[in-house]
Amino acid sequence: MIKINENYLKLEASYLFIDIARRVTAFTDAHPEREVIRLGIGDVTRPLPPACIEAFHRGVDEMADGATFRGYGPEQGYAFLREKIAEHDFKSRGANISADEIFVSDGAKCDTGNIQEIFAGDTKIAVPDPVYPVYVDTNVMAGRTGTAEDGRYAGLCYLDGTMENGFIPALPTEPADLIYLCYPNNPTGATITKDQLKVWVDYARENRALILFDAAYEAFIRDESLPRTIYEIEGAEEVAIEFRSFSKTAGFTGTRCAFTVVPKACVAYDSKGEKQSVHSLWNRRHGTKFNGVSYPVQKAAEAVYSEAGQQQTRALVDYYLKNAALIRREITALGFECVGGENSPYIWIDGKRDSWEFFDLLLEKAGVVCTPGAGFGKCGQGYIRISAFNDYEKVQEAMSRIRAALAE
Amino acid sequence: MIKINENYLKLEASYLFIDIARRVTAFTDAHPEREVIRLGIGDVTRPLPPACIEAFHRGVDEMADGATFRGYGPEQGYAFLREKIAEHDFKSRGANISADEIFVSDGAKCDTGNIQEIFAGDTKIAVPDPVYPVYVDTNVMAGRTGTAEDGRYAGLCYLDGTMENGFIPALPTEPADLIYLCYPNNPTGATITKDQLKVWVDYARENRALILFDAAYEAFIRDESLPRTIYEIEGAEEVAIEFRSFSKTAGFTGTRCAFTVVPKACVAYDSKGEKQSVHSLWNRRHGTKFNGVSYPVQKAAEAVYSEAGQQQTRALVDYYLKNAALIRREITALGFECVGGENSPYIWIDGKRDSWEFFDLLLEKAGVVCTPGAGFGKCGQGYIRISAFNDYEKVQEAMSRIRAALAE
């Protein structure tokens, strides 16, 4: 008899975005004359940079001609892309990452979801709260948790983020083997300094733990003192895997290209306590279950590293950062405490009331959609997330509506 | 302490293609003047159909304009593509599959590799031998086997394919929960009739088993009596998941688009013996660990179903089928017994000697690269696979060289 993986039955139904959609639909049905401005989901709205479009077209043209046609490529990605990534994103920052330590993929969501497979079933997992739900759900599916109660799964170690600690959690008080960190953070927009990140790297080294560092939003860092990669921290290559994406850097959410860095120095242990290469394990997983990213997409991603591509992607990120600064300024002027909005596209606001209550207020009085913080975990209760991914004029309009709504 | 998934240590090193590459390199180093013709790996060589190229370019152009730009799409694929698949590939064959039962992905390799996650850890797995290695390796990684001995993993049920049974194995003699089948078969090129497939569907229904039906090569079927989809068999929608790909149909091996069909009627069981929806489980898995296929790639795939696309992909497949027929004709004339090469791009040849010995003979005497059958499992010993994926002129030249080599 074919039986299911019963761990799936432990998953809490993902009500957050369904609930948001339901409330927005109810509102628009009731008020068809009112335009809703969406600052909820973290999806880009601006077109791909021209350099990427040109390279994308050239890649497609190559597929039209037998002389330049490409069939299966290397599962880990083409050298032309991996080499540029190593050079521009790592070596230029003093991080000694080589091309063969980079695994090109179709998304950071896939990679952050799949990576747990190469570790033991009884791995003790630590996740931040608030948290990107994929980190949690993929470990629930793999059987590393008990059931959920009050929004928290038994067996997981939750690292509380609060306004007091600036959403940089304290080290775990119980032993943790695999630690998910994300900076600039989704959903809070918080950033981490080198000294703060060093605390985590040192912890991992001392405790033979491993850090999964999600840096999907690193392109939003403008403060040169902040680390753009965890490998700027000494010794991180032994204890950290880093996830990156072209989604937010270059507007690739619908184009799909990302990469994961697994340094050859990175180790985990077998049951005899012997060191094992995490790079070899991931390489085997990647080669067995993945067949590479579309060739024209890799060409488009490569163009991010051209001179024009660098200028254009910087301008793209600057555009959203201008939105973020405006949101942060307006929200602060209204007397709210917030984090993010600097070096990040997200503004995380202490609403001083229930998350959903604030969500409803902004929707009904201002016609603005945000994301209730409670959807990201227990520590998100009382907060909302506003995203800077929209046109500047829409953000201006949204903020002026919020101002009016709250003045009522 | 971070520990590895020790099941990975059970994996036999994948020597097959490494070994092939090593031997080919040694040969070309020794004989730089001789041109090697590659009929080994199953990778297409002809350019994408013009209809796909045009649609691909239009998709890229849409990404260049804010008014038509696409960010995150539905994880399961765009309706425009899913609806065409349902209509053309299933409803037109009398198979009642709807658009929301189709999950668009970036490859059948990924899907056939990932699908086992939604089933229990103690699922009894049956695989054909010879076998596409991904079916086996992903179950080894998930801990459903013991270690390997003599090329076979403990705990797996191997279904022997032989020249006598035409590489359509007999039903398992021990209970099996999850059964991998692939027709037209990789690597043997064997096809299955409706009556033969019905035996498996009936077995699954009677034993509450589930069939994973890999139909990546269905476009090569020209015999109208053969099933193009397992859902042509009555009751299959309750007991079968089907995998399809644009890789071999339309030359998408480097472009990356495929799909998996999970009917809503398909059931598995929980530990209480209650029915559970496999569609819901896969939908959850897909939505949690995947973020959809690149939008321009989905547009290119959609064009396969246009009138021009249908003509062009048929011509593309016909081209390879002409190669296959030539290989089959020549090999048969040389006195070898073979299967495949009709309704399939692969010709599976009984070499009447060790697989690697025949491989070396063809490489050294004819400068032709094939794949030794032993690389696909114990039952592959004594066979070689020749692939029809190359230019017709090269295939002609390869066959004339093989003829000469064997006449020596």
Automatic annotation (TrEMBL), chains A, B:
Aminotransferase class I/classII large domain location: 35-402
Keyword S-adenosyl-L-methionine appears in the UniProt entry: no
Protein EC: 2.6.1.83
Biochemical pathway: Amino-acid biosynthesis; L-lysine biosynthesis via DAP pathway; LL-2,6-diaminopimelate from (S)-tetrahydrodipicolinate (aminotransferase route): step 1/1
Cofactor(s) for this UniProt protein: pyridoxal 5'-phosphate
Catalyzed chemical reaction(s): (2S,6S)-2,6-diaminopimelate + 2-oxoglutarate = (S)-2,3,4,5-tetrahydrodipicolinate + L-glutamate + H2O + H(+)
Superkingdom as given in the UniProt entry: Bacteria
GO terms of biological process kind: lysine biosynthetic process via diaminopimelate
Cross-referenced Pfam families: Aminotran_1_2
GO molecular function terms listed in the Swiss-Prot or TrEMBL record: L,L-diaminopimelate aminotransferase activity; pyridoxal phosphate binding
Keywords for the protein's UniProt record, in alphabetical order: Aminotransferase, Pyridoxal phosphate, Transferase
NCBIfam families for this protein: DAPAT_plant (TIGR03542)
Protein name: LL-diaminopimelate aminotransferase
